[in-house]
Design goal:
This protein is an alpha/beta fold and 487 residues long. It has twelve helices and 17 strands. Strand 5 (232-235), helix 10 (245-261) and strand 6 (267-270) form a beta-alpha-beta unit.
Length: 487
């Protein structure tokens, strides 16, 4: 394991230096801009109780919360059966890394982000820094390592995430009543440091993490980088706390320098301006932008509305909702990272499998307008108002006039977001222009075809109010794609 001084030496060795000015020389990996669609995987001890969501480890220690009451009714008192007692139950007997890789490939993903360590502090990889990891306990497997090997066989880009920052206070409520979270706690202990949780009014100033904790965070993250060489690293929230700023610059310079030594351009996905803009990939959780952006970005969301991990009460999204989210992101210069949550045994629920299958089948037909595409001069059109920002999902439904655009090679791709039971579509941004000086579309349309053979075009005509496309009545509920060849 590298010491803090050794980490700093590599960070300062160049060409990147641990300061924002130097780190703004970052360049986005080309493959990421072409890939468009990835899979996120939340899987860990929280998958054993499978109750409410992946924050079970925190909430089971908050008095009178649903998790607190459920835990006592199902598993016993927290001082008799604590969160760490789920470790022997997390056996992952049906986990098969090769099967996961095949499933994600068939879903149409080009890259995968398994979570290396969630807020609960259980590492899903072999570690020298703590015994509480999947190699020494529970499954007794290097989950992250097995997944990387499986993904590389299938040309899936291997990425990973660390949610360790928030562990500073994640288990702190367990010290408020008799539980297995008790002092003394020392570095390397599962629950350490279990500090007081900040309230919403003072979230990013106090409590202020100690140097010991920040050093531990840095070494844990470097251990992942050194041993697994992910192509992209993702950080969850609270990493934007002021205490992490210096450490993030050290870590980013270290990682980017290491990537170059491997012959790769690597990247960090970040939220809430944790990095200075231009030093990594902007991430928006469960949200979107209203318009196309001049910078490349990613949205991450889950297959369910109410949880990132498997639970017994998941409120699943429809495949249509997810595909619409993918199109929305790609048309605005972004990617979609879709999360799935396996069961504790390593298998997937039937609902997850069916949704992933439908997405994969849609991408096989429509993927030429998604993969390797770029945003067009207009991201889209239509009456539905797009709400911008994080956690803005599920507000409003698309209607027939909502169109999104991408471009690839000599073609413009137009995605009709809600075509069900319609047969006449007007693409207003492709109308015949009377003013030769207008800064809009002046191309010559040669051909209009449907990517889906089940969607039959009867005729098309470019008029003053738009490109009119008439089809037989659409009987499918998913978005359809018109491929428009332009001279």
């Amino acid at each position: 394991m590298l010491s803090i001084n050794e980490i700093k030496k590599i960070a300062q060795a160049g060409p990147f230096q641990p300061n924002w000015s130097s780190l703004q020389q970052f360049q986005m990996p080309i493959w990421f801009q072409q890939a468009k669609f990835g899979i996120f995987v939340h899987w860990g001890l929280y998958s054993v109780p499978a109750f409410n969501n992946e924050w079970y480890s925190r909430n089971m220690y908050i008095k009178d919360s649903p998790e607190y009451l459920h835990h006592r009714q199902t598993f016993g008192m927290q001082d008799e059966f604590g969160y760490q007692d789920f470790i022997p139950l997390f056996t992952a007997e049906k986990f098969n890394a090769d099967a996961w890789g095949k499933l994600f490939k068939e879903t149409g993903a080009e890259y995968v982000f398994p979570v290396a360590e969630h807020h609960d502090g259980f590492q899903m990889y072999q570690s020298e820094l703590s015994d509480f990891n999947s190699f020494k306990m529970g499954p007794k497997k290097d989950i992250l390592g097995e997944l990387k090997t499986a993904f590389q066989k299938l040309d899936l880009h291997f990425c990973t995430s660390s949610h360790r920052a928030e562990h500073w206070f994640f288990m702190g409520h367990g010290k408020e009543f008799p539980s297995d979270v008790h002092e003394p706690l020392k570095k390397g202990d599962f629950y350490w440091p279990a500090q007081t949780e900040p309230d919403n009014q003072d979230l990013f100033s106090h409590p202020y993490p100690t140097q010991e904790y920040l050093d531990d965070w840095l070494q844990r993250t470097v251990e992942i980088i050194e041993n697994y060489q992910p192509e992209i690293l993702y950080f969850d929230w609270w990493i934007q706390h002021d205490a992490f700023k210096e450490y993030l610059q050290i870590l980013t310079a270290f990682y980017y320098n290491r990537g170059l030594s491997w012959g790769k351009k690597v990247a960090i996905c970040y939220k809430h301006d944790a990095l200075m803009f231009g030093c990594g990939i902007v991430e928006i959780e469960r949200g979107k932008f209203k318009d196309a952006q001049p910078f490349y970005w990613q949205t991450d969301t889950a297959i369910a509305h109410n949880s990132w991990s498997y639970t017994t009460n998941l409120q699943y999204k429809t495949p249509k909702e997810i595909i619409q989210t993918l199109i929305e992101a790609v048309s605005k210069n972004g990617n979609l990272l879709l999360n799935v949550g396996p069961k504790a045994d390593g298998s997937f629920a039937t609902e997850d499998l069916q949704i992933m299958k439908t997405i994969g089948e849609w991408l096989k037909i429509n993927g030429s307008g998604i993969y390797h595409s770029k945003c067009w001069r207009k991201a889209g059109e239509g009456p539905t108002e797009i709400l911008e920002g994080k956690f803005s999902e599920g507000q409003g439904e698309y209607v027939v006039g909502d169109i999104r655009y991408t471009v690839a090679e000599e073609c413009i791709f137009a995605f009709v977001m809600a075509p069900f039971l319609e047969n006449h579509f007007i693409l207003k941004n492709l109308r015949v222009m009377q003013n030769p000086n207008s800064a809009t579309f002046h191309g010559i349309i040669e051909e209009v075809v449907s990517l889906d053979s089940q969607v039959e075009i009867l005729r098309w005509d470019n008029q003053e109010d738009g490109l009119h496309i008439e089809t037989k009545k659409i009987t499918q509920d998913l978005p359809i794609t018109f491929k428009i060849k332009v001279k």
